[in-house]
Write a structure and sequence with these properties.
The protein is about 70% helix and about 0% strand. With about 120 residues, the protein is mostly helical.
Length: about 120
């Protein structure tokens, strides 16, 4: 049986999906002390469904957290967090030049900045 993929994740690689899932299930619980659990468990993922900047920022944090968890094993992925942050910044730049409402732009930028 084929597994279903969230339509917002179609353009993501398998690794990106894995790290996004990792932050949803694990990392957000551990970083929630800096902001409310509602922010990490709900807002980041809801905004990330429609705003690639937030989604890429969350993937980058997921990779960094995964690296922290497994660093003793020597299997860190050192380039992917930076790649995801660069993608997030590129999408943020497009956010300002796009046709999004000002409230969506503000929400996207603030959410991305907090995650990054």
């Amino acid at each position: 049986m084929a597994s279903l993929i969230d339509t917002t994740q179609v353009s993501l690689s398998q690794a990106e999906r894995s790290y996004l899932n990792f932050i949803r299930q694990n990392a957000s619980k551990q970083v929630a002390s800096y902001f409310s659990r509602a922010f990490w468990d709900q807002m980041v993922h809801q905004v990330g469904e429609s705003q690639p900047a937030v989604r890429n920022a969350a993937i980058g944090i997921g990779v960094m957290h995964w690296n922290y968890e497994i660093r003793e094993l020597g299997r860190e992925n050192r380039s992917l967090p930076l790649q995801q942050c660069i993608k997030a910044f590129g999408h943020l730049q497009k956010t300002f030049s796009g046709s999004l409402s000002s409230s969506t732009q503000i929400e996207t930028v603030l959410c991305s900045c907090i995650v990054l």
